[in-house]
Write a sequence for this structure.
């Protein structure tokens, strides 16, 4: 082999090296269409006017139902999406919120609409304490610990006679006429959903959000960059529990009863995870898109197959397909390809 | 004293089955880093195989065990090919597979529920309700047989892993997947085989479980938490650890059940999981990183 | 003189990420020691991973003795005669030294022959003999590297690729690694070495290869590469580059 030394000159090599580095760096694009979510919100606020023209209770129920899931999924997203800690136990905070406000309603007749923030606060405190323990581990161990949490809570609630044990607690029904009975809850959930989405946006772009996103990539590096990861994670846990707890509070009154086998089931947790994954974990619009899709798909299943066990199968199937083929979710995948419509770019 | 021994024996008798239930889970995690949340649902599928074989044709569940194991192993190969083979290359693999198996667990439960409904079932061969008596102490035959069969199967698994060429390859892949591949191990084949064995073990456990516990599709969530605490305590991936953890927790749960109350006996497992995560997340026999 | 291994203009990268290697080529001459140098992140490790099948090759070819290796898995490529010791050494921490050596001969069918070869290796490396029953994970970095390199000798491959065997080792131990490498070479094994310490690497090799930005810039006799002033400036720190 003949030795041919065709070295380019040094300046050229250094210039090429720089150009090469730049090629590898990704560009972020910043365009936002704030009018879109605002318009959607306005339309939803006006929607109950339809009641003057007929009975649209089912439609209102669907919107309310979706909005409640937006609150919870967006809340879950703070921990699962930003910090990367996937929890399958968030139904616990749903139940904590639901039972706290529900008991206040049943005993003292205070509407959950008033006590919901307190319920959220209680859930946040519980989240803070639980997070102190379970956030020591990450990845699969954390997920498992969250399931264990749910199982423990289920046993406790099932056997706690003060709150009705496994039979649960009946709550008073409000005395509004049928057409308007849903309205308080409807507006409560729309308001909470809007607030939650706005809050997650603020959180994502705060110092906390930055820290969370850093530690979700590499906890050790984040720590050596001076981020108190332990504290950040626990705060994220508490915040996400807050929103879920708040949603649980109002949901209880809307449902008019509390029962462990409604509030403390893995399907509730699973739905939150599923919505965030399908919509796009860690994005602002993701949980909203996911909630709309999942509620839609669920209604479709129920309409075609009835509320059967096959429903569970369907949920699992959608989740598996989403994970395997769109692990970044709708928003994430479109953004990665640079094809995210401006109206969904809320980040 | 007699009561103490009695409770100890009941705890030990269940420990064997729980160890078998957990060993497949541990193996699959060790080799493929898959935390298989669907494992308990597949155990229940195995239990249905044994249940119907007994109900329809009167076949003894212990006789049915190898068949249930084979059927489930076949399903395992299929699942691996469909769901996990591609995922093995993705970056956040471990976390991804937890969610994927979670989805699978829901699918299995949904299917089983649609076919067999959520009524409690139990296979009832004669020995399931019979017992040996040694003076005051009784040993339920069903649990004893199930425990013995479990230990025989786990022993066989341990020998296979220690001495066979495939076992060598499985252990090597467990410890360092890339290195195994660089030394000529076809890690994909090893993964399929290990996954099939793991799910086959779920089938075998299912056949035994069918007459030891009552079961229905939604029972899986309780078992997920129970088996996870066993496997995490044992150190994910360590079969020996799983066995030791299964017996310890089972005995503790038996005592808690007798002295504190039956509902608290399952709670033992869940609380144990929390305590372990708190003080020794790597488990009894596990190594530090990887999971944490 | 025909090449043993011919790598022509390969493109490769991780997952669906950008191409890390873009136009790398390499000619491996039988029986010689080859040293690949280049700055951190140049793609040296990536090149070795691409050759041994750990990374998918997007474009270009890897040909061993006239046979195309593209698309084969690492275990298949090992059977063709290329053995790779990655930067992180690839040991089985919870297996003993002896078991690790046995794993080195996993592809051998004959168990008795395997035992014989393992014993022969233990004879040649007394430090390993002393620790035959110790778990590999509990050994020092130098001992682990010795084990990783010794293990490649069990199947007597055509080519051994070593990724920075000197990484994190004391200078004296580094010398030992180079002497093991020399021993391999004397036995007729062709060596492909990636080395951060370019001076030391090139002095101990026959052929030098410079890789930068995922491309091969220079290939030639190690002495020539070492003497080239531009190389001195860019990669050897002879004079300060801008
Ligand atoms: N597992 C990986 N996934 C994605 N990118 C990677 C991975 N490993 C390396 N890279 C990228 O590939 C490029 C080349 O890395 P490589 O390890 O081949 O460099 P190297 O020449 O061996 O450097 P060093 O001397 O530091 O070992 C780097 O830009 C690095 O960021
Ligand atoms: Mg390198």
């Amino acid at each position: 082999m003949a030795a041919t030394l065709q070295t380019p000159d040094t300046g050229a090599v250094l210039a090429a090296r720089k150009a090469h580095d730049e090629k590898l760096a990704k560009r972020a694009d910043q365009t936002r269409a704030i009018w879109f979510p605002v318009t959607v919100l306005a339309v939803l606020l006006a929607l109950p006017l339809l009641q003057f023209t007929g009975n649209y209770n089912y439609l209102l129920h669907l919107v309310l139902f979706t909005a409640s899931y937006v609150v919870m999924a967006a809340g879950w997203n703070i921990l699962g999406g930003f910090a990367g800690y996937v929890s399958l136990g968030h139904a616990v905070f749903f139940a904590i919120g639901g039972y706290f406000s529900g008991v206040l309603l049943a005993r003292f007749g205070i509407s959950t609409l008033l006590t919901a923030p307190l319920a959220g606060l209680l859930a946040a405190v519980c989240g803070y304490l639980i997070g102190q323990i379970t956030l020591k581990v990450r990845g699969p161990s954390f997920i498992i610990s969250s399931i264990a949490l749910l199982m423990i809570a289920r046993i406790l609630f099932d056997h706690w006679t003060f709150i009705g044990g496994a039979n649960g607690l009946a709550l008073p029904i409000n005395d509004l006429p049928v057409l308007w009975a849903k309205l308080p809850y409807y507006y409560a959930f729309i308001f909470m959903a809007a607030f939650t989405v706005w809050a997650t946006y603020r959180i994502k772009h705060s110092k906390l959000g930055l820290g969370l996103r850093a530690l979700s990539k590499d906890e050790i590096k984040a720590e050596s960059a001076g981020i108190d990861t332990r504290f950040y994670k626990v705060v994220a846990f508490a915040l996400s529990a807050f929103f879920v707890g708040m949603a649980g509070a109002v949901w209880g009154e809307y449902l008019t009863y509390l029962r462990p086998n409604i509030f403390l089931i893995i399907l509730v947790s699973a739905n939150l995870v599923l919505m965030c994954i399908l919509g796009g974990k860690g994005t602002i619009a993701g949980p909203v898109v996911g909630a709309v899709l999942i509620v839609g798909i669920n209604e479709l299943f129920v309409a075609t197959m009835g509320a059967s066990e096959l429903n569970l199968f369907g949920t699992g199937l959608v989740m598996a397909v989403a994970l395997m083929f769109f692990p970044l979710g709708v928003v994430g995948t479109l953004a990665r390809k640079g094809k995210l419509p401006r109206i969904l770019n809320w980040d | 004293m007699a009561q103490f021994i009695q409770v100890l024996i009941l705890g030990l008798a269940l420990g064997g089955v729980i160890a078998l239930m957990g060993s497949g889970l541990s193996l699959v995690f060790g080799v493929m880093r898959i935390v298989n949340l669907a494992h308990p649902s597949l155990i229940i599928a195995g239990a249905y195989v044994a249940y119907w074989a007994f109900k329809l044709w009167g076949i003894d569940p212990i006789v049915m065990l190898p068949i249930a194991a084979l059927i489930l192993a076949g399903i395992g190969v299929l699942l691996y090919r469909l769901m996990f083979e591609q995922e093995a290359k993705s970056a956040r693999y471990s976390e991804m597979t937890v969610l994927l198996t979670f989805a699978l667990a829901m699918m299995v439960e949904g299917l089983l529920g649609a076919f067999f409904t959520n009524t409690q079932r139990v296979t009832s061969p004669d020995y399931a309700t019979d017992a040996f008596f040694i003076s005051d102490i009784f040993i339920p035959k069903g649990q004893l047989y199930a425990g013995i069969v479990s230990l025989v199967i786990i022993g066989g698994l341990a020998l296979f892993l220690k001495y066979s060429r495939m076992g060598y390859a499985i252990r090597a892949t467990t410890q360092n997947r890339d290195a195994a591949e660089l030394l000529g191990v076809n890690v994909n084949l090893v993964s399929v085989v290990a996954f099939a064995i793991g799910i086959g073990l779920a089938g075998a456990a299912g056949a035994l479980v069918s007459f030891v516990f009552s079961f229905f599709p939604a029972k899986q969530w309780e078992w997920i938490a129970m088996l996870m605490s066993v496997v995490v305590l044992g150190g994910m991936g360590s079969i020996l650890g799983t066995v030791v953890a299964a017996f310890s927790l089972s005995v503790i749960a038996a005592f808690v059940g007798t002295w504190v109350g039956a509902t608290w006996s399952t709670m033992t497992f869940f609380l144990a999981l929390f305590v372990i995560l708190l003080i020794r997340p790597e488990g009894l026999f596990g190594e530090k990183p990887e999971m944490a | 003189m025909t090449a043993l291994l011919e790598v022509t203009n390969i493109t490769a990268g991780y997952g669906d990420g950008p191409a890390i290697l873009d136009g790398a080529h390499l000619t491996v001459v039988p029986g010689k020691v080859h040293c690949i140098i280049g700055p951190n992140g140049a793609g040296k490790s990536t090149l070795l991973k691409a050759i041994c099948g750990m990374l998918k090759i997007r474009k270009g070819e890897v040909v061993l003795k006239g046979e195309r290796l593209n698309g084969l898995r690492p275990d298949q490529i090992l059977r063709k005669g290329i053995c790779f010791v990655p930067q992180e050494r690839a040991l089985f921490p919870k297996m003993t030294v002896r078991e690790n050596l046995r794993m080195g001969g996993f592809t051998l069918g004959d168990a008795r022959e395997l035992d014989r070869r393992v014993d022969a290796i233990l004879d040649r490396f007394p430090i390993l003999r002393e620790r035959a029953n110790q778990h590999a994970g509990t050994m020092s970095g130098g001992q682990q590297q010795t084990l990783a390199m010794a293990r490649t000798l069990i199947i007597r491959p055509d080519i051994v690729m070593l990724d920075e065997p000197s990484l994190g080792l004391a200078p004296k131990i580094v010398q030992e690694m180079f002497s093991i490498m020399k021993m391999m070479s004397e036995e007729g094994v062709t060596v492909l070495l990636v080395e951060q310490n370019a001076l030391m690497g090139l002095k101990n090799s026959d052929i030098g290869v410079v890789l930068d930005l995922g491309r091969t810039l220079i290939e030639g006799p190690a002495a020539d590469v070492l003497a080239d002033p531009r190389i001195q400036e860019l990669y050897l720190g002879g004079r300060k580059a801008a």
